[in-house]
Amino acid sequence: MSKKLTGNGLWESSRMMLPQHKEQSVLTRRESGTNSAANDSAIPAPFPPTAKDMEAIRRYIVLPVALQVVEKKKREVEMSSQTFRSLYAVATNVLAQHIREDMQRCRKSLVEQQIRIFEPSMDGLDVHYRFICRGAENGFTMTKDFLKSQVSLTIGQYTNNLIAILRGTKSR
Hints:
Blueprint: H1 9-13, H2 19-32, H3 51-79, H4 85-112, E1 115-117, E2 121-123, E3 126-133, E4 136-143, H5 144-167
Antiparallel strand pairs: 1-3, 2-3, 3-4
């Protein structure tokens, strides 16, 4: 007897689809309106990520890290004996709230654009992210130094926006 047919090989070697199952699959796709008659057996090609998609992915990665930094600094300020610690604590609360709101908007945008990002894996000085963008699976790598600089820039932008709001020159 063939090695393929022993043990679990019987199921692993079976790759055929019964005509009844194919017919049911085609009918289901036609009813849902996701497939045309000319495209019954073909799977649509995935749409690759655009530069705007990549920017949204980068933002989705950077914002949570920025929030962690702001919240850590808030705890440090609250525990300190600085004269203006209550002012700093309020300012970091406002910064954290703005970052949270933007994180929610970013998540919603990614869902609408059919982008899904998976947990990162770290490799020495690099952080690797795997994502699926409208069916196309891809990867995104950042060095830890680049991530730190992006977090710093992001917090700086939020701080400048907060100052502009306080001065009355910018509305949220």
